[in-house]
Amino acid sequence: MASKLKLDAIGLKILDLLQQDAEQQLAQIAEAVGLSSTPCWRRIQRLKESGVIRRQVALVDAQALNVGVTVFVSVRTATHTQEWFERFRATVQAIPEVVEFYRMSGDVDYLLRVVVPDIAAYDAVYKRLIAGTQLFDVSSSFAMEELKFTTALPLGYVR
Amino acid sequence: MASKLKLDAIGLKILDLLQQDAEQQLAQIAEAVGLSSTPCWRRIQRLKESGVIRRQVALVDAQALNVGVTVFVSVRTATHTQEWFERFRATVQAIPEVVEFYRMSGDVDYLLRVVVPDIAAYDAVYKRLIAGTQLFDVSSSFAMEELKFTTALPLGYVR
DNA sequence: GTTGAAAAACGCGGAGT
DNA sequence: ACTCCGCGTTTTTCAAC
User: Fold this and answer.
1) Staple B40 to which of A95, A114, B30, B114, CB 3.0 to 4.6 Å?
2) pTM for this one?
3) Which residues of chain A have pLDDT under 50?
4) Distance from residue A38 (CA) to nucleotide D7 (C1'), in Å?
């Protein structure tokens, strides 16, 4: 779904508004970008169809769900086979506490962001991680405070 | 907005549905949780008012915005005054390429997730970071591949 | 807390400029 | 490609169980 839809100034403004707040009515967005509702609606449709807007979600308060602790987990591995990777990936994907998962360059092979209620719960996730695949080095860093978290991407680099 | 709204099984199911996809109609959600639309609507209202649902946003494709490169930046500092912190925080908050920003325990003091088009653009962000406040140690790790990214938090820990 | 239905608002599409 | 306008649906409110 990676499409090459050209994004003009109005399209960018629509994206900006929607990635800040997707609850506003079509009419408000239309007015904000200086369009009537029909063409604005069609633009939003195209943005969704082309995959530029991937989905629309509700962001839930982590405290309310009792997962206020964020842990970053750095993983090093000695095994670098395709088979091992697929297994590791499947293991990690299936753990709902893992909300982000990256393959890295440099000395760390993988980086995970995990959300849990406390350190004891993290230990359970840790055990699940190392149980899923063969041995590797794991190093955990705890976040004391979330200073910024946004799903809004910067719009300044659009070609 | 940190409220102690009790979350029952139906409330959790509503949250789960909405954090997967906030576009579905009220009627669909109501049917899925086995409620008629009025009580379901009231529950969602309460979840929003109490702050359990923080906001509703559109997730935009990073490739389409030409910010396909994720960099994790570890920051160490020698200065630990309140004044320095406030200045650093303000600097970082103002940089739109920084999408996540945590104060950490352990050897690293702060961890940032930065999204940019390429390494050259990252260098510009790096310069902006070190220009904002006094000297500190900065270490950058590049993500080669995003294996998982979700805004959906696990629901299994609700008390 | 639930239901069903009425009132209001909105999304969506067509025809025209 | 946008504006205007109206139909059909959905949200939202209300009265009653």
Assistant:
1) B30
2) 0.94
3) 2
4) 15
